[in-house]
Structures are given as C-alpha cells and as structure tokens.
Input
Amino acid sequence: MKILGLQHAEVEHPGYFRHLLKEDGHEYYAVNLDQGEEIPSLHNYDALWVLGGPMDVWQVDQFPWLTLEKKFIRDAVFNKGIPYFGLCLGHQLLAETLGGKVGPSACPEIGVKEVSLTEIGIDGVFFDGVDETLKCLQWHSAEVTKIPVGAEVLATSDNCAVQALKWSTRAYSVQFHLEVEADTVSNWSQIPEYDLALIQEKGSGGSDILRKECESEMASFNKNAERIYLNWMQTSAHI
Output
C-alpha cells in the first residue's frame, strides 16, 4: 500500500505508526507543505493521511497553501473516495472541507487526557478492541464545532465534543494523538506555538512534565495505536 502523507511540521510525522507501516511493508511518502513542497497527483497512491500542525484551518492568509490542501482533501475524499486518516489538524481539515466548521476551543486541551467512545464508536470498526475510555495525548486549541452532513462522531470528551469522526465508509479522523514516541514531546516543544500552549497549561517546566506523563502511558498509547491502525487498514480494504 502506498500512502501519501500531508505534513505541516517536519517533526509532526506519523510517529509510532511509521513502525507499524514498515513492519507490514507499506510505503509512506511525506509532503512537507510548510516547506513549500507540492502535493503530487493521487494517481499513484492508495490512501491519504493528513497530519497535525501548529497552524489553524482559517489561517489561509498566513499559510496560503492551506487553500490548495483543502481542495485536494475534498477531491480525494468526497469525489474519489480515497481512504483517509486524519490526526489533529488533519481531523479539522477533513471536517471543514466536507462542510463542517472549526473554531477556537473554549477549553484548549494540553496533556494526557481521557477520551470516551460514543455508542457509534463502540459499535463500529475503527475503535474495535479499544477500551470505551482511553487516555491519549492532547495538544490543541481549536476543534470541530459542527460536523459535516453525513458524518458520525465516534469519540468525545468533556471539553471537546468531536474527538473522532467517520465520514462515509473510508474517511476517519481523530483530534487526539496516539502516534506518540519517546521523543514526541521534546520534538513538538520546539514548535513555538506548541511550546507556548504547553507553558500556559503546565508552567515553565511543562515539557518535562508532559514527557513524564506520556512515558507512563506509552505502552497503552502504542497498544491503542496498533489496534486503530489495524482497524483503519480493515476499513480501507487492504488487509
């Protein structure tokens, strides 16, 4: 399977999912949009992954390539039915391009937090084998405020109603992160917007605090990441 990955920060890559993809012989091709790399044709790819990033979906003046990216995502998902997996910003972009809305979070989520599956999430394929309440890394100050027509909410939390989405049969996205690795927090802390949000939430030692929080949950993160990865592969009909 050849997966096209749209990335918005070099250090915000598929993380632990890279190990799973390599293990199964799948190929992942990254396009770093923030570095000016152009999006190729989907003709030679089997799926589209869209990763997180420090920008917001509405910042098209500051990041003009967002406009082209949105058109590309909509065409891939809505017109072509390409299997899609979105993380954080990729979750928000999926919702907006399909007609939903994204806005600033009333209560930004930074840290290891709990997410609960909805009844639809419990009964569906994407979260099969995952506990009804799971811990994950959150690092966002924007969220989906209105879901697209035809979308279903698979997971939620107290401060963010739309933690995971399904649209049609092959497009899935999550607001949270399970791709966490040992160096994820230290790498992401190098991004000024992320570092500022972390300091505001946890103080000047926020990076060390969050890194330790993630270390204590790493086995659970990896287990859930593998389960969700396998489930997504099942929805894309490639295993």
User: Anything to note?
Assistant: The chain has a mean pLDDT of 96. The CA atoms of residues 97 and 210 lie 32 Å apart.
